[in-house]
Each structure stands twice: as C-alpha cells, then as structure tokens.
Amino acid sequence: xxxxxxxxxxxxxxxxxxxxxxxxxxxxxxxxxxxxxxxxxxxxxxxxxxxxxxxxxxxxxxxxxxxxxxxxxxxxxxxxxxxxxxxxxxxxxxxxxxxxxxxxxxxxxxxxxxxxxxxxxxxxxxxxxxxxxxxxxxxxxxxxxxxxxxxxxxxxxxxxxxxxxxxxxxxxxxxxxxxxxxxxxxxxxxxxxxxxxxxxxxxxxxxxxxxxxxxxxxxxxxxxxxxxxxxxxxxxxxxxxxxxxxxxxxxxxxxxxxxxxxxxxxxxxxxxxxxxxxxxxxxxxxxxxxxxxxxxxxxxxxxxxxxxxxxxxxxxxxxxxxxxxxxxxxxxxxxxxxx
Length: 339
What we know:
alpha/beta; Arc Repressor Mutant, subunit A; D-Maltodextrin-Binding Protein, domain 2; 2 domains; eight-stranded mixed beta sheet; 10 strands; elongated; disordered N terminus; disordered C terminus
C-alpha cells in the first residue's frame, strides 16, 4: 500500500483517490477533543452524555494508540502536553467543520441567515432589503445584529457583514469579499448647522458639540489628522458606546457626529443629514461579506452575496459623485439647501 500511495503521488492523482492515514477510534478522538477544549473530564462527560470514567478510558486508549501522553495529570486538574495542544487544535477545527456541514444539510436551502453590525444593518442593509425581496422573492433572509463582534467559528449563521482592516481570520474555511471601504466625515442636521454655524477652520470646531461613537474619541482624532485643516480640541463633547447612538444624537440636533459616508448615503441624499465639511478620510477599515467556504456556492447565499456586491457598487458610485459635487460648495449653502 505504501508503494501504491507513492505511485499515486507520482502520477498526480487527486487527493481523494489516495487512502488517508489510519485514524484512532473516533470515540477516543471525540472524548479527548471535548476534554481538551473544556479543560475538564467532568465537563466533557456532561457534554457527550457519558460517564467521567468513559472519558478517561477513551483518553488512555488514545494515548496508548499514539504512544505518547496528551495530558499531564496534575493535582489541580489536566494540562495539555505539546502534542496534546497540536492535536486538540486540529480536532476542534475538524469536528467544527463536520458540524457546520451537517447543519447546512439540515438547513432549508432557500433561507439565508445574516449577521451584521447594528449600524450597518440599520443604516445600509435595511433600506435595501425590499429591493432584494423583489429580485429574489423565493429566498428568505433572517437578519440579526452583532453588538460585540463576530465569532465566526462559534456562532450559527450562514454569512456575516463585518468591519475590519483585513480579514481577521486567515482561515481556509472562510470566504471574504470586500464590499465598501470606510471613509468618515462629520455629519449633522441642516438645522444644527444653521443654528451653530458650519465650521470653516479648525478654530470653528470649538463652538460645536462633538459626538463621539467611542469613549476614546478615536474617530474624531482620525478625521482631524486627515482633513487637512489643522488640529482642534476633541476632548470635549458627548461620548457613546456605539456608532448608531452617536448618529441618532446628531439626528436629534444635539451636535455633530463623525460617521461613515457610505453607511449614511440615504440620510444624506434625502437631506436628513448634511456633511458641513465634505472631506472624507479613509479609516483603514472595510465592510466585508464573509461566510464559511462550504456555504459560499449555495445558490441562496451566492445570490445574496452578488446582490450585496451590486448594491455596494452603487453606493461607491454615489459617494464618489457626491464628494465631487460638494467639494467646493460653501457649507452654509448646503445647510440652506436642506431646510
């Protein structure tokens, strides 16, 4: 058999035609993976609905098969050896992918579950969903929001829209597609701009209430560093813990928020918000579509991804045209044109 495997590699036969290496008993591998992941034989037994003795026995059988210890038995509990750490990582990944593949087979093929950040979902995705339903009436979308980031390997959803600099998970199990590069700029209501006066210089920002989407005020600092008009004090104003809260505060007339141009395209186009200083500064982030590779070519997921790409292209075109159109228009004129 060894000679046959060697000849198959020489002939360039596909991997699927080669006999895989012999595996230990799957029950032993499952018991070890659960104990390693949970850090406890007791917890592993509860998860797999067997006794603690059964878990311990399967781990001993696996160690005997591999002829090396996978755990150190300490007074305070179990500790993985170097070999155990390597095997644990691979097994958790493998069992996870098997679980996702099985879940996908059980899931209705005409349904796509989507998770997105609240601001992107509310401000960009939601206003466009009617168009998706008209284009794909047979596909059911289940949209939920992720307030504190995404756990791509731990949460049960088909695809997600998330903001990051580069794909945070360089995993062979995921497909990442860039939708929109993030550019930020100040926004406020037309009434606020008329009441407080639109800023022309760095000193003018001193009379404005700056609305910060994060307590560290990093978004305003980033825009200040890139707008080209000099530095101003960003230490005051009102802080929030989400971008959407800061935008809602700006919509209420409280002050001036810093936000992503593409996400607010609809509000700006309708005149609900204006950008008194139409200088968009790249944040270095992008909004990405991501899904597990085994789902990427499912018909409903592919249709949703392609629709997202088409809508994102329209938004990019609008943003470029809007910036070109307003770059030289006085800010007070923009406020007057939007009562």
